[in-house]
C-alpha cells in the first residue's frame, strides 16, 4: 500500500559536502534517500554530526546541494527552479527551528513576525484580513489574541515555540520541517508542543519531517523513522519495525541508550556501546537492503545476514 | 545502619535583584545528603534547582542575596569530624577550603567549563597543586590515573591535548577528572549530560556511578530528565517555584508519587506503551518568580487544585519516613482523590515489567 501512495517529498541520493579547504571537504550527508507521504511524520534521528539537521536544511534549500534529487509535490526542487516552483517551495514547505529565542526577530511584534510570509508572497490582502488571519492562527496554537502586539522577549520558551509554529502554519504548508523543535524546552512544555503539532496534523493533514535526538519523543510522534550515522542512512522503517526489531548495531546502541523510566529496571541496565572505528564496518561498502515490510538496513548481504541471525533484544533491554 | 549525613541545608532562601524587581528564586529549601548516596533535584528551568546548588558552592552571582538559612557541611579534617555552616565563610575561605577540595561541581556545557588555552593535563593538575601543594611529578601521575578512571584511552598522550582537540563526550570526561582531582566528598552535577548525545549520556552516567561505587563520594544531580533520575538517583527532590514540593526515594517517586506536579512530570515523558493519541501535559507555563504569589504557585496549572490552594501554600506533609509532599490533598481534611488514569496504568505496567524481569 505504501508504494501506491504518491510521495509528498522524495529525496534521492542526497549529497551535501562542505568545502573546508582546497583538498579537504566534509561529507556531511553522503547519499541519503527517503520519502515522506502526505499527512505522516517522518523522524530523523542520529547523534550530533550525523547530518540530520543538514538534510532538513538542504531539503528546504538553505544549502546548495552537492548532488542528488529532491522532488516536492512532483516538482524537482533540487536544481534551478522556475518562479512558480520556487514560490510553491517557499510557501508549501516551512520550517520550525530549534532555538525559539534566536529564531524570532526581537524587533518585530508577534503580528508582523507571523504575517511576514503573507507579506512577502503578497497574500496578506487588506490589513483587516491580514490581522484576522494572524489572530486566528494565534488562537489555533493556543495563544491569546492580545499577544499579537507584544514582542518575542515578553514570552517564555514554550510560548515562543508556539509563535514559531504559527509562523509556519499561516502559509498552509504541506510539509513542516521541525529541526529539534522541542529540544530546548522544559519537559512539561515539550509534551504541550508535541500535542499541538499532532492536533494540527489531524486537522490540516500536514506532514512533518521531525529531526531530533530524543528517541522517546521521536518514537511517540513518528510514523516512520530514519536512523542516520556519519551522513549515511543506516536503517529506516516504520516506528514499530525500528523499535521492535532494530537490526543495525548502531541503531541497537542508540535504542539501548534511552533511559528507561522505571528505576527498578534502569538501575540494573548497562547500555550497549558501538564504535564505528572499531566495528569493522564500512558504510560506503554496503547498500540499503530490505529485511521485511518497509524495513531497510544498510550493509553488505553477509553483514545483514549475520545481524539477523542473532537476536540481541535482550542486550538492548540490558537485563538478562 | 546509621547513615552519615554530609550536607544539611535548612530553610534556604535566595533573592535576586534584577531590573524587573526582586526575584525570590529559592523560598525555604531543606536538603539532606548522606554519605555515598545520590540525590537528584528535579524541576523545570526557573524552579531554583541550580541556584540552590550554586549557594552550596558559594558561587551565586553578585545580585543574589541569601535571605535566610543554614548549609551545614560535615567533613573529616585530620581524622576529626568538623561541621561548618558554609554560609558563614567568605568567598575567599570557600575557595581555599571547600571548593574543589571537598565539594566539586560539573557543569552542563563541557566546552565553556574548560580553559581553551591550557592543556588538559595542566587543568587536572592545577587543583592538586594549589590545594595540596602536590609535587608536579606526583600530580601528573595522579592525573594520568584519573584519566584512566574516566575511561580515556592512551591517557599519557591526552594529557598534552587542548580541549578543542577532543569531542564533547571526551571533554565532559575531562571535566569529571578535574572535579575528582582533589578527592572531594561531594560531587554536584548540574545537568551533566544535557549537551551530549544519548549514547554518550548513558556512558557518562554509568561512569559517574562506577566512580561513586569505587570512591564512595556523594553525588547531587540536577536534571529535568526523569529517565536520568531513574538511572542514577537514590533520593529525589522535586522542585517547583523555588520550593521542594515532593521528596522521596526514587522508587516512591516512580511507584507512589503524591504531588500533582510530579504526576505531570511523569506523564509528560512518553514510555514504551503511551497511548499514541495524546501525551498528558501540564497545562500553562511556570510562574514568573518576580511577582508576589498568594497561595500555592502551582495552583493555576493544577487540575487537582482545591479552594485552599488559592489562599494558602501547603506545607510538606509526611507520608512515610522517607516520603513527603507539599499538597493539601494529603492533609487530614483533604478530599478523596485518585491518580490520573494514565498514571495508574503506567505504574501497573512498571510492576508488570518488574515481575517479567524479576527485578521486584
Task: Present the secondary structure layout.
The complex is a heterodimer of chains A (about 325) and B (about 350).
Chain A: E1 9-19, E2 25-36, E3 41-45, H1 52-59, E4 67-72, E5 75-76, H2 83-92, E6 93-96, H3 110-120, H4 127-140, H5 157-169, E7 175-179, H6 187-204, E8 207-211, H7 215-221, E9 224-229, E10 232-238, H8 239-244, H9 249-256, H10 263-266, H11 276-279, E11 287-290, E12 296-299, H12 301-309, H13 313-317
Parallel strand pairs in A: 3-8, 3-9, 6-7, 7-8
Antiparallel strand pairs in A: 1-2, 1-4, 4-5, 9-10, 10-12, 11-12
Helix pairs in contact in A: 3-4, 3-5, 4-5, 5-6
Chain B: E1 5-18, E2 21-34, E3 38-42, H1 49-57, E4 64-77, E5 80-85, H2 91-98, E6 103-106, H3 120-132, H4 136-149, H5 155-158, H6 168-180, E7 186-190, H7 198-215, E8 218-223, H8 226-232, E9 235-240, E10 243-249, H9 250-255, H10 260-268, H11 307-311, E11 317-318, E12 324-325, H12 341-357
Parallel strand pairs in B: 3-8, 3-9, 6-7, 7-8
Antiparallel strand pairs in B: 1-2, 1-4, 4-5, 9-10, 10-12, 11-12
Helix pairs in contact in B: 3-4, 3-6, 4-6, 6-7
